[in-house]
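Weekly sync, protein design subgroup
Attendees: M.S., D.O., the rotation student, P.L. (late)

Item 1: inverse folding check
M.S. brought a backbone from last month's batch and wanted to see whether the design step gives back something sensible before we order anything. D.O. pointed out we never logged the input encoding, so this time it goes straight into the notes. Structure tokens as presented (237 positions):
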């Protein structure tokens, strides 16, 4: 694991999320946006691929917000991350909430792909690609992990002036939705780049959706506008 940690994880990013780990399940904390968008993410995933009975791996699961909700839909879920403190919070929450069929492991996507190729019906990688040095490597690992015919779901942030203004200036400095320094603009990913990586990894893109936010009503919704936050669904042939 050490080799993968050095090659495709940013120690500063891991430290940042570890420091906040105890606040993952506080819906009024720095993770409030994740709690707010989780029902939308879950509904979108379920709309493409009903989760009941599926084997799922949630890459970059953090404190387990999405992992937990997918398990409650009847999936057998493995959440993986390299931030140990966040994983311990996820495990503790699963015990306290008595969430069925969810487990957590401190392992990289690449290492798990080498260990368990073509083992999962569904792979999710949400709000994670923009936090690693080599996102294309994670995309390849996702493609290796999913079974033929299975689904891979991504969500990330576009790289353009509007995304800089909305996702960094607006969310971190004006509205204080996220801690300052949560995102780095140069790590944002254009949909064309993500599409190229997924095709290169042998996946076929099925759908892309934008996620928008109204600061006055504090409401999130999915739309056709992928200019800031967006989700992408792909399948392995």
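Designed sequence read out in the meeting:
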């Amino acid at each position: 694991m050490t080799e993968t940690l050095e090659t495709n994880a940013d120690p500063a990013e891991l430290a940042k999320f570890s420091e906040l780990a105890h606040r993952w399940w506080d819906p009024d904390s720095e993770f409030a946006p994740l709690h707010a968008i989780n029902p939308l993410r879950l509904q979108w995933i379920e709309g493409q691929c009903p989760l009941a009975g599926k084997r799922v791996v949630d890459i970059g699961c953090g404190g387990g917000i999405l992992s937990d909700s997918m398990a409650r839909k009847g999936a057998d879920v493995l959440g993986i991350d390299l931030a140990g403190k966040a994983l311990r919070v996820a495990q503790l929450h699963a015990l306290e909430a008595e969430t069925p069929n969810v487990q957590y492991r401190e392992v990289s996507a690449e290492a798990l792909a080498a260990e368990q190729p073509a083992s999962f019906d569904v792979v999710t990688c949400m709000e994670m690609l923009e936090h690693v040095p080599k996102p294309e490597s994670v995309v390849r690992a996702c493609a290796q992990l999913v079974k033929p015919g299975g689904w891979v779901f991504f969500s990330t942030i576009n790289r353009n002036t509007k995304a800089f203004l909305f996702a960094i200036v607006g969310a971190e400095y004006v509205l204080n939705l996220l801690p300052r320094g949560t995102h780095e603009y140069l790590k944002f990913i254009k949909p064309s780049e993500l599409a190229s990586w997924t095709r290169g990894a042998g996946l076929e893109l099925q759908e892309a959706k934008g996620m928008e936010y109204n600061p006055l009503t504090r409401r999130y919704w999915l739309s056709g506008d992928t200019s800031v936050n967006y989700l992408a669904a792909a399948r392995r042939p």
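Discussion: The chain has one domain: 2-235. The longest helix spans residues 32-48.
Action: P.L. to compare against the previous round before Friday.
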